[in-house]
Design a protein that fits this description.
The protein contains 12 helices and no strands. The chain is mainly α. It has one domain (about 1-270).
Amino acid sequence: MIAGALSHFRGPIVTAVRNKSLIVELTRREIQGRYRGANFGLLWALISPFLMLAVYSLAFGSILKSRWPQTDGGGHDFTLILFVGLIIHGFFAECISRSPQLVVQNPNFVKRVIFPLEILPWPMVLSALFHLMTNFVAFIVLQLLLDHQFIWKVILVPIIISPLLVLSMGIAWWLAALGVYFRDIGQVTGVVVTALLFTSTAIMPLSSVAPSALWLFKLNPLSFIIDQAREAALWNHFPNWYGLGLYTLIALAFSYAGYVVFFAAKRGFADVL
């Protein structure tokens, strides 16, 4: 029993290390395939977030006059604050939206006995991570252009994001397994990612939230990560290390549970597909 528990605990790490070359190749194909045939190619990784930022800045900054307590008004400060939230939400939204189809869209992999299906979430999550880091490079450039400053603590963002990466892997395993047996999950995820945006601090500070809904914003897994990323990248503060550590422990527990569920469920994938 103990040996089996240890095997499941080591499983995700051992599988990833053993198949690292395959994961790298699938990730490369994932990134390149998204922009294949597009005239601007990989430039869309930078263009898309700026287009999204322009829409939300107009809606929440100019029309709704949203403000943050750390700033005196809208303008450049609000644009950068909003950009951080949208970047992180975009990463999480991509992982949630695509996870239910990971196995369903790859039936050939299911029929290959030697193919390790449990690595399927890795290319998807790493591809989303690539776009997240690309967007943060764009954020740094935007900050230099608008505020004429470089806040060195932005280099802590990858550390701040890492617990969300672990959580995303867990969600991917859960949804990928459930998506094989319950195809309707893929129809619900679009609503979920929209709800996660509007119930997080991505587009509004906690001070603007009604007390009756505050618990919902605090339970949203994005809010804490977004706030800590802003603390480092915008206000030159160190993140809450204790909170990040606790978040990581919870994410690890959820992620390992997802791996165990996926590993158990994959025995029936071939019968369903």
